[in-house]
Amino acid sequence: MPGTYSQIYLQYVFAVKGRENLLLKPWREDVFKYISGIITAKQQKSIIVNGVSDHVHVFAGIKPSMGISDLIRDIKNNSSNFINDQKFTGRKFSWQEGYGVFSYSQSQIKNVYEYIARQEEHHRKRTFREEYIGLLKKFEVEYNEKYLFDWLE
Q1: Tell me: the pLDDT tens digits for 69-81?
Q2: Using an 8 Å Cβ cutoff, are 123 and 53 in contact?
Q3: Which of 53, 104, 116, 147 qualifies as a FRET site for 5, CA 20 to 30 Å off?
Q4: Is residue 2 included in any domain, yes or no?
Q5: How far is CA 10 from CA 27, 59, 85, in A?
Q6: Could you say which residues form the signal peptide (predicted)?
Q7: Is residue 1 part of a domain?
């Protein structure tokens, strides 16, 4: 019997509640590894997880049976529980509501990977707001400023 084969490449972008700079370097990598583990446990392909102190980029290959919103819900719920259980912040941690999700082709994987890997370098020149709105425009996503993340700038 023939099977169904596919691979959908998605980049998720989401922020710390209140856009606070809470993802600190001493433990940030642990959180990114944990998020990668969540993706793998859901039988999806974690390509790269990286970010800076106030937001995260997740690049993953997902199967059509995985709901886009289901994966990000599980990532946010489980990783915030992990951060709180580890007491990394000294207070209750949570992610901001909402997220961005953008799709890519196989030929774009290397460029997206490198872009996400260089987040700290990238954000020396460009704010998260500029980056996020740039992604929305690049992918021609209609949006209302009122419903975007809370911006600190």
Answers
A1: 999 999 999 999 9
A2: no
A3: 116
A4: no
A5: 25, 6, 28
A6: none
A7: no
